[in-house]
Amino acid sequence: MSTQQLRLRIQTKSGHKLLEGLFLASTVGKLKEVIADCTNITKNKIKIRQGYPPKVIDISNETAELSSLPFRSGDTLIVEEDESINASTNPGVSNSQHDERLDTLLHHQLEEGASGILTRKVVPADNSCLFTSVHLVMNDGAYDSAASPILREVIAGIVSKDPTTYSEAMLGKPNNAYCRWIRDKNSWGGGIELSILSQYYNTEIAVVDTQSGRVDRFGEDKNYEERVFLIYDGIHYDSLIYESIDQTGPVRTKFSIHNAVILAQALELASEAKSIRQFTDVEGFSLRCSTCQAPLRGQREATEHAKATGHVDFGEY
Q: Which end of the chain is more exposed for a tag (fewer CB within 10 A), N or C?
């Protein structure tokens, strides 16, 4: 049985609270008990929504482990009272004792300097997650659905003005072809684009890989003073943001490059995601070229096929 702790926070009408005592092997029933203890919602009327856009999570099987649910350590869950369900005649344990324990926990964390928590800010999986996530962390956590085409255009402009640096050898395709490609909303970003955006914002971009636990630091040789964090699961990028536990402080997305505590929290989130296999094996999944229907295996074959044919539209099957 896994003893990996699961760090979750809930958002209710009365505010935000941190859940304690939960692990990947904890049951859904235990989750309901913890939520009921720190809210005014009885256990049988709890409704949880999560994601973007928020979707209702099935928590009817109280014996199921939390590892079976789509929760990631660091997530914030939206908790509501389901008015369609009759209230239980037995409201259960009073909230007062648990509130005291929660207050003690928060006070201890504030005293130790851990006044907040690093969390994953999920962005839409629309082939532009890298650009959306970068814009979000560079703008204090503000999500902008229109940011992706702007950053694509920024990259295309930088590349087109410097064909010597951004040559075919570097880009894998002619400079002008790359510029057309990166402007396409269906083209995925990667290392080249992260490197360019790091220089554009004069900020180091650290990408934590959930499968390997590796941290790739774009701009680490530029002596930038600040660093932002993304988390990558092999297919999708999300941003990492720092929020105060009691919601009194502002969201933070930029940190000193010397801040080892934030780096450790980012690595911890990646480790927790790996422990419940929240990553995609990009070298093992099956693809098909949408242009010529050629079957391919993994990212490497897709990249080689794109270089040989110029085809860049792939689908998983």
A: N
**What number of helices (H) and strands (E) belong to the chain?**
9, 14
Instruction: For the chain, report the end-to-end CA distance as a whole number of angstroms.
Output: 33
What interhelical angle do 191-201 and 147-160 show, nearest 10?
90
Neighbours of 258 (CB within 10 A): 8
Pick the catalytic residue: 16, 99, 216, 311? 311
Is 311 a residue of the active site? yes
| Confidence band for 207, pLDDT divided at 50, 70 and 90 | very high
221 Cβ neighbours under 8 A, 6+ residues apart: none
| Number of other CB atoms surrounding residue 279 within 10 Å | 18
Q: Which of 302, 269, 310, 264 is nearest to 285 (CA)?
A: 302
**What pTM value is reported for the model?**
0.57
209, 236, 238, 305: which is the annotated catalytic residue? 236
CB 95 within 8 A of CB 62: no
